[in-house]
Design brief:
Chain A is 6% helix and 37% strand. With 136 residues, chain A is mainly beta. In chain A, 36% of the residues are buried. Chain B is of the alpha/beta class and 421 residues long. Chain B folds into two domains: 1-30 and 174-240 and 271-414, Thiolase/Chalcone synthase (Peroxisomal Thiolase, Chain A, domain 1), CATH 3.40.47; 35-147 and 245-259, Thiolase/Chalcone synthase (Peroxisomal Thiolase, Chain A, domain 1, 3-Layer(aba) Sandwich). In chain B, strands 1, 2, 3, 4, 5, 6, 7, 8, 9 and 10 form a ten-stranded mixed sheet that branches. In chain B, strand 9 (400-406) and strand 10 (410-418) form a beta hairpin. Chain B is globular, with a radius of gyration of 20 Å. The chains are: A mainly beta (136), B alpha/beta (421). Chains A and B meet through strand 4, strand 5, strand 6 and strand 8 of A and helix 7 and helix 8 of B.
């Protein structure tokens, strides 16, 4: 089991943002792009990174319906997914598709963030940036 | 299709203008024809055995040395994995065999990509006169560990800091989830069907059913049963995922000019290639989801060997997942990218369809899916048997063999040919 550490120097702000229903990525202002995964400084220009709040709109790159039991830390089946935020097309955000059925998903469809409470077996719940199919 | 694949030289490849790519070829010295695999050894490949990796490794090493017609004191080089499971060292060798001579030791051996690149490293040691007969060994006890709850292949993945914070809490684990998402993207891009994907596990299972040492030798698999089973991580089913096994395999590498006077038909090392993904230390961030770094490894190996996929008789591909094997068959150059699903139909991967009838027999021992999970070490042993003409599922007139190794962010290629005696 590995639950979010809100005080982790590199990744804490990602989870603090999720708790406030904000999708944040670590960002380099001079390079005007996301640096993902977070690093101590921009690998291109050396500038300090900050956390940029995104719109939550993304494209579904791919997904997999994970049967209950394959991942011992979660009791239920779930849909694992990689999405690319529209502001950061080279980023593959590891997430889940929620409030939708696998048969309604196709690669490259637009999806939108939806903050959901997740809980691992024997762990405290945490709010995670998941994604869903926009209504209408 | 295959006739269009022409030979390219190492000089051609070195001259090729760099283009923006998601990976790179690591240039290796030309060692074509310098060394050969002269002995092979393996333990039983099983489920939980209770045996230690050390005991299994030493049994495989002893068998390989005897197969090469050598004594333990003739071995002056030992190669093992520096990354995976518990491996043996020189002290274990000397204690077991009662020897005390100098033993060159390298942790750049083992299985996965190193099952190919160890030949390049061994050639360097032979060139410098450091070693003459070098044994490479790989042992694993993950079946026993899984049964005892004391370790699993996913442990490193779960423990890495950024993965632990940004992937594990969302459920991006274990490894079948990664490769299932890649397979989904491949299906979207190229129209691969589940029935086409099933060809790989079904063919490898048929090979295992005729291979007396394969873990799945007595377990038949039909397309109906495959399709009726519920995916573990869609689109991958249990049969698309590698076994978890105990076992060890080893081989002796010797200078080619000595090999012709040794007891076994030598498997000459003609080419080695090594490719890697760049800019994506985490597999989730890899930009190209429908290919493997095999595209960066294979051209170098074929150029070094002065041959092409059209001239290969049998292949062994790292099949941690069926979809990964399919992508590598394409990335080796046996068919165009995206054509793999139709290319592998009509028994093209089965040992009974040799090259002159359009086949390219693949994983004739059953692979990681049905023979056992020795991470590619058994693949090399099987190819050597094919070139000797002693394989359980013998391919007619097998003269040239290719191994494709894979770790996800790296890949390797080894071209072998049947040597003269």
């Amino acid at each position: 089991m590995s639950i979010p550490d809100y005080h982790h120097s590199l990744t804490g702000p990602f989870w603090q943002g999720a708790a406030q229903h904000e999708l944040r990525l670590s960002w380099c202002r001079p390079c005007a792009q996301a640096i993902w995964y977070p690093q101590a400084a921009c690998p291109h220009c050396g500038a300090a990174l900050h956390w940029h709040v995104l719109s939550g709109d993304a494209l579904l790159i791919t997904w997999s319906e994970v049967a209950a039991g394959l991942n011992p830390h979660f009791s239920e089946a779930y849909i694992s997914a990689l999405v690319s935020p529209v502001e950061a097309p080279t980023v593959r955000l590891v997430t889940r598709m929620v409030q939708c059925a696998a048969q309604d998903l196709r690669c490259d469809m637009p999806v939108t963030v939806r903050f959901e409470k997740l809980q691992q077996l024997h762990g405290e719940p945490y709010v995670a940036p998941c994604f869903t199919v926009p209504q209408g | 299709m295959l006739g269009q694949l022409s030979r390219r030289s190492l000089a051609d490849l070195a001259r090729a203008a760099p283009t923006p790519r998601w990976g790179a070829t690591l240039p290796l010295d030309d060692i074509a024809g310098e060394l050969a695999i002269t002995g092979i050894g393996e333990t039983a490949v099983t489920g939980p055995s209770g045996r230690t990796p050390r005991a299994m490794a030493l049994d495989a090493v002893a068998a390989a040395i005897a197969d090469a017609g050598l004594r333990p004191a003739d071995i002056d080089g030992l190669m093992v994995s520096g990354h995976i499971a518990e491996q043996i060292g020189p002290d274990d060798f000397h204690t077991h065999f009662g020897t005390q001579h100098p033993l060159w030791f390298s942790t750049e051996g083992g299985a996965m990509i190193w099952a190919a690149t160890c030949a390049h490293r061994a050639a360097q040691a032979m060139r410098k006169g450091i070693a003459t007969h070098i044994v490479n060994v790989f042992a694993v006890d993950w079946a026993s560990r899984r049964a005892a709850g004391t370790g699993a292949p996913g442990d490193w993945h779960a423990g890495e800091e950024l993965k632990a914070q940004l992937e594990v809490p969302l459920g991006w684990l274990p490894q079948p989830v990664y490769f299932a998402t890649f397979a989904r993207r491949y299906m979207h891009a190229y129209g691969l069907t589940e029935t086409q994907l099933a060809t790989l596990p079904l063919t490898f299972r048929r090979h295992a059913n005729e291979h007396p040492q394969a873990v799945m030798r007595n377990r038949e698999l039909t397309l109906e049963r495959y399709l009726a089973s519920k995916p573990l991580a869609s689109p991958l089913r249990k049969e698309d995922c590698c076994l978890i096994s105990d076992g060890a395999a080893a081989w002796v590498m010797s200078p080619a000019e000595r090999a012709r006077y040794m007891p076994q038909v030598p498997a000459i090392v003609d080419g080695v290639g090594h490719g890697c993904v760049q800019g994506a230390p985490y597999i989730s961030q890899q930009q190209e989801l429908t290919a493997t770094p095999q595209v960066f490894a294979a051209p170098w190996a074929f150029a070094m060997a002065n041959t092409s996929p059209a001239e290969v008789d049998v292949i062994a591909v790292y099949d941690c997942f069926s979809s990964t094997a399919l992508m590598q068959i394409e990335d080796l150059g046996f068919c165009r990218k995206g054509d793999g699903g139709s290319f592998i139909q009509d028994d093209r991967l089965h040992y009974s369809r040799p090259r002159q009838r359009g086949g390219i027999p693949c994983n004739t021992h059953g692979g990681l899916l049905s023979h056992g999970y020795l991470l590619g070490a058994s693949h090399i042993v099987e190819l050597v048997k094919q070139l000797r003409g002693t394989a359980a599922n013998q391919v007619q007139a097998a003269e040239r063999a290719v191994y494709a190794g894979f770790t996800a962010d790296e890949a390797s290629t080894l071209v072998l040919s049947r040597g003269a005696q």
